[in-house]
Amino acid sequence: MPRQRNRTFTSKVKCDEGRPGCLSCQRIGVACAGYDPKYIWVEDDGQTYKSAGRRILDCEKTWKGFRLLSSDQADHLISECDMHACVVLVDGPTSSQPAPHNPFSVFSAATRPSIGLMTEEPHLRPMMASFPDSTWVERMLFHHYVTHVAGIMMPYEHPRNPWKLYYPATALSCANADQQALYSAMLAQAAFNLTHLRGFDEEILTIGAKYYYSGIEKLLSITRGQSTDFGAMSASIMTIMFSEIYNGQSSTWRHHLEGAWSLFKEYRKSEPWKITDFVCVSIQSLNIVKIIGATSERSRNSEPFEHDSEEDDFAMSGLVSTTSGFGFTIGASQAVLDCISIISQVRSMRERGNMTRMADDLLEDVLSRLNKCRLDEIEADEVPIQIGATEAQKVSTESRSQSSSFIYSTYIYLYRTLLDVPPKAVKTYVSKTLQEVSTFSANSNGNFSLWPAFIAATEAYTYEDLSNAKRWLDWATSFGIGSRTSARRVVEEVWRRRETLSCSSGLDPGMISIDWRQVMHELNCDILLI
Asked: Where found in the cell (predicted)?
């Protein structure tokens, strides 16, 4: 029996196969050859070369007759090895044909289908092929947007997902500057997402910045003239905003939000939400961002109170919230989103010293609505999901968890924001919210909405709740959304401060209130909790 070879080729030290390096070699100060080019042991099997017992795998000889791929092309093929009927674009900007052989297909494995691996709509393929001027990078980024980014823009798969159903087709039309701006913004968002999925790829980051500024320039050219497509222009502004959020370095996303809202004000009289479903869901998305964005807004008590302007915004928001299916893109009901909006409005009035009888009435109205939402949810939960559930029933489980978490977290937002109760007073709602997050993750690969989980996580203090919140943070930061890293910093800093104060004062952690908005401000973060 031949002796087992368990030492490196250049030393007599036994290799411990440690990572990232051999500790045995490091201790005696020699370079370990175990991490140099890979050698294999071969037998003299009559081949034309003389076997010396080992050899380096020569890439050019091994793949003789095959075209060598660049690293980007290899990454693209690897990402598609579990996808069916995909279009592999490897021959430059003018080619669009299925690859007859994918060298990485041997890695295919049967895994639970992920929302991030959905293939694009069939009608997109000929549309992409009709743009011979597009580069391979553009096609790769567009493909990534359709198959991954569009899916994680919602918490779970939905037939009306506008980022899959409408955005790609509108962007590829490229009939006017509005649609060209949308196309560039989508490529930027896809590039920034890839940057974080790859552990911060600076090359892709640079490419994303190029398309981001291209989208900005096209938007500026539109604002100097006259927009011909309200839907495409508003979608372009919102996509530019989301690309900044995915980049994770944004401090200006609120400016884009206000720009899109001002554009909506200009077109309000024409009731644009009645034009097409694309325009309607785009306006709904804008309104949701405005509602959620207001919850993390810093105190503006030093600013003059513009009653008419805020009342007008509130009325417009209420008008949009009555449109069909409002809230489905974030997984919350119209009633719950209205409650969140009212709480933020009361908070704004209180901070500016404008607390009136109307604010008390609004508070009572919110509690009444929330209680009704909770009762409706309990009745819905009494209908069990049968064993062997269909895909539709699985989606129902996802939507229930998402909807319930919004109800419980809105209670937390209400009591902590307006009544300033300690975390102990909302512990039940914190636990239930985080339990819904765990239920969702056990049944779905989807991207759970950030707001309810974040609101609950900042008030967690018991071992069980902290453990669930930590698992959620690990999961939430795996989607390649840059702002999630900042959200994690804020949550962990809240926990650290609560623990420090508890140790120094001897108080129960559940009795220590930490304002996460103040922490966010001190960390120089401004996070859209979506």
From this structure: Nucleus
